[in-house]
Design brief:
Layout lengths: L3 H8 L3 E4 L6 E2 L2 E2 L3 H10 L3 E6 L6 H10 L9 E3 H12 L4 E5 L2 H9 L3 E2 L6 E4 L7 H12 L3 E4 L5 E4 L2 E4 L1 H12 L4 E2 L5 H11 L6 E5 L2 H10 L3 E5 L6 H4 L8 E3 L3 H4 L4
Parallel strand pairs: 1-4, 1-13, 4-5, 6-7, 6-8, 8-9, 9-12, 13-14, 14-15
Antiparallel strand pairs: 2-3, 10-11
Helix pairs in contact: 4-5, 6-7
Pfam families: Hydrolase_6, Hydrolase_like
InterPro entries: HAD-like_sf, HAD-SF_hydro_IIA, HAD_sf
Organism: Mariniphaga anaerophila
Length: 266
Amino acid sequence: MVKKSIIDKIRNKSGFICDMDGVIYHGDKILDGVKEFVSWLKSENKKFVFLTNSSERTIKELQGKLFRMGLDVGPEHFYTSALATAAFLQSQKANGSAYIIGEAGLINALYNAGYSSNNIDPDYVVMGEARSYSYEVIEKAVNLVNHGARLVGTNPDLTGPKENGISPATKALISPIELATGKQAYFVGKPNPLMMRIALKRLGVKREDTIIIGDRMDTDIVAGIEAEIDTCLVLSGISTEKTIDEFAYHPHYVIQGVNEIVKNYK
C-alpha cells in the first residue's frame, strides 16, 4: 500500500506529463483506474499532456483509440515522438526530404512539416515503428545512409508493451541499419530533452509543479530526472520493482498504476 503522503504529493502537482503505453493502456486494453484518473485530472483542472514515444498513430487516431476505451480527450492533450521528429527535422533543414520507414503518424507529421518522401537521394532516413519492415526496406535504407542520408529514429525504445507481451520498437528496428553502415542514429523521443521542453511549454506549468508518470526507467524516468521534473514510475508496463535496481538513478515515486492516485479519494 502506497503511503497517503506520497499520493498527496503526486496529487498536489499542477501539471501531469503521462506516457501512454503501459500507463493508460496495453494494446487495446485500458488499464485499471484510468477512466477515474482522467476524470480526476479534468475535475481538478489539472494541466495534462499524453506524451508518447510511439510514432505509429496520428493525434486523431490516438483520440479515437481513447474514445473507444471510454475516454474523451481533446487533441491539445497529445504529443508524439513523430511530431517532435518532424519539428526537429524542419528546424535542421526546412522543407527537406526523407526516406520514411513508419506508419501514418510519422508520415503525416513529416508531410505537415513540409517534408517530402524521397527514396533516391533524401536528406534523411527516418525510422519509426513500422509494420512494413522488411529486408528490402533495410537494404534500401543502408544504401541511402551510405550515400550521405542522415539516420534519425523517432525514439530510442527497444520494446513496447502489448496485451500478450512485448513488441520490438524503433531502436531494435533501426539497429541493423546502424550495424551495416557504422553510423549511429539520432533519436528524438524521450529521454531527449526536446520532448520534455515541448511538453512543459504545452502545459504552461513550471517544472517544479509538474510530474512525469511513466512505465520505463530508461526513457520516462531518466527524461524527468535530466529535466529536473519529479518522476513517478508505474509498474503497470515495462519496468518492475526488480529492474529499478539495474539503474544508477531512482524515480521519486513508485506506484502500481495510476489507479492508486485516485482509488482512495472517491
